[in-house]
Amino acid sequence: MKGDPRLSVIDRRLEKVGRIIAVTGGKGGIGKSMVSSCLALNLARSGQKVGLLDLDLTGPCDHLILGIDSPFPEEEFGLVPPLASGIRFMSITYFTGERPAPLRGTDVSNALIELLAIVQWGELDFLVIDMPPGLGDALLDALRLLRRAEFLVVSTASRVVLETVKRSLDLLGQVGVPIVGVLENMRRREGKGVEELALQNGLLFLGSLPFDEELEEALGDAEQLTQTAAASALMRVVRNALLT
Amino acid sequence: MHEFALAEGVISTALDVAEKEGLKRISRIGVAIGELQQIEKELFAQAITEIMPEEHPQLVDVDVDLRIEPARFRCRSCGGEFGFAEAGGELAEEESEAIHFIPELAHTYLRCPVCESPDFEVTKGRGVWIETVEGSE
What we know:
The complex is a heterodimer of chains A (244) and B (137). Chain A is an alpha/beta fold. Chain A contains eleven helices and ten strands. Chain A has one domain (7-242): P-loop containing nucleotide triphosphate hydrolases (Rossmann fold, 3-Layer(aba) Sandwich), CATH 3.40.50.300. By secondary structure, chain B is α+β, with helices and mostly antiparallel strands. In chain B, the strands form two sheets. In chain B, strands 2-1-6 form a three-stranded mixed beta sheet, with helices on one face. In chain B, helix 2 links the parallel strand 1 (25-34) and strand 2. The radius of gyration of chain B is 17 Å and the shape is elongated. Classes of the chains: A alpha/beta (244), B alpha+beta (137). The A-B interface holds A 1-9, 12, 72, 75, 77-79, 92, 95-96, 99-104, 107-108, 110-111, 114-115, 117-118 and B 1-2, 4-6, 8-10, 12-14, 16-17, 31, 94, 97-98, 101-105, 107-109, 118-119, 126-133.
């Protein structure tokens, strides 16, 4: 065996993408998908050309958050992500619909490589990647294959979450990838746990998104989502950390 | 994998291999593709023609040979071994298309014919790899 042809085209697929922002955090249920979706939405509303890649292959949900029900991507020297709410969107749901994708680690890795090799993102200012939870294959492959990725780390103030996010930050720090900063999500009460975690790691604390009771009601409606308190707070983060 | 992406990757990887092995001219590229990739040979040949640079010192009259490796699966649940046709029966076009683009979705659309488990290992016939790059130094 002389080589895997898929790997040689991944960089080419991303060569016209300005910045790659991987939204991670390590723990499930902390709102990475909501942050990724609203981040992409806010960037698009700010006039940026944006792509959103839902890399949660076993539990994708960005399409539900944004109300994206696009037809199958067009084929043009690969697959062109359909434009929805101003965002070029790619997800495994185009291929599975609502069916489950029971994948083991190596399968996740291979599926991720296939997606990166066949998707023609074209010219983008930002590609936002919604990372799955955990420090497993998807994160390791993102580190290996998306060499220009910058990581935006999401956490909540729960001690259980902070402990896991700390491990993620340790790993990202050890491999030396750029980290945009740490964002507190679903803030319910006063406290500086997330901010302190960011500062202890020498990172920028991006701010806090409030726990937003109205968010659930806004799911599936991009316009309504942008009006929520959480999305508005995220817009300030976008302006301060990504567009300045 | 999409035929065009595959063709692009094959040419790019062959040029990398040629550089490492000191080949000044490539005469033949041998590519193996797993059955699970559901590649159409004619489309791949067409994509290779489209992607081949018109003028490239290393790529003149190159033969690209494609070998399809039949897929084999081993069920992790009952230990049964089976092939693609036994697992999928007659797949709908969109299911076959999904596996073509992302072969791991075999776990969504195929089942062990003995116990119906989606937890099987692909023992052969998955992936794409360059087997040989032949030419002159």
